[in-house]
Amino acid sequence: MNELEKNLDLLSLFHFILGGFTILFACLPLIHVGVGVALLTGAFNSSPPPPAIIGWVFVVMGSLIVLGGWAIGGAMIAAGRMLKRRKSRTACIVIAALECLLMPFGTILGILTICLLTRESAQALFDAPAPSPKIAKK
User: Fold this and answer.
1) Is the whole model's pTM more than 0.85, yes or no?
2) Rg, the chain, Cα only
3) Do residues 50 and 65 make contact, with C-beta atoms less than 8 angstroms apart?
4) What is the rounded CA–CA span in Å between residue 87 and residue 102?
5) Which of 70, 81, 71, 88 is CA-nearest to residue 25?
6) Which positions of the chain have pLDDT values less than 50?
7) Residue 103's closest CA among 32, 29, 18?
8) Is 69 helix (H, G, I), strand (E, B) or coil?
C-alpha cells in the first residue's frame, strides 16, 4: 500500500467520523420542532395564545435544518465509502466541496479531499479496473 492509498483510507475514516458527528448535531434543532408542536397544541398556558404561524415557523424551520444536516452527514458517509472503494471520484469531489460549508472541520476535510483527488495519481487509482475476485481451486 503506497502513500496515496494510505491517505485515501485516512480521508475515508475522517469522512465517516465527521459524517456521524454531523448527523448527531443535526438532531439539536429537534428541540425547535418540539417547541413548535407545543405552541400549536397549546401546551404553554399563555393568555392570549401566540399565533399559529409562530408554531409552524418553528416546526418547518427546525425540520428543514434537521433534514439538511442528515442529508449532508449521509453524503459524507457515502463519500467515505466511495473513497474506501476507490469509486466515483467526481461525486467525492462534489461532496468535498459541500463539506467546505461546515466550518472549521468540514472546510479542512473538504480542501484536503479536493487537493488529494485532483492529483493525476489519484485519478489513475480511481480509473483502474476493480480486481476480479479470486476463485478458490480444489
Assistant:
1) no
2) 22
3) no
4) 24
5) 70
6) none
7) 18
8) helix
The pLDDT tens digits for 96-121 are 999 999 999 999 999 999 999 998 88
Whole-Å CA distances, 90 to 3, 22, 47, 55, 78: 21, 22, 56, 41, 13
Distance spanning both ends of the chain, measured CA to CA: 30
- Do residues 99 and 86 touch, judged by C-beta distance below 8 A? no
Q: What residue has cell string 448527531?
A: 24
Q: Is 25 helix (H, G, I), strand (E, B) or coil?
A: helix
23 and 73 Cβ atoms separated by less than 8 Å: yes
Dist. CA 112–CA 98, nearest whole Å: 13
What's the grid cell of residue 35?
417547541
CA 135, CA 130: separation in Å to the nearest integer?
15
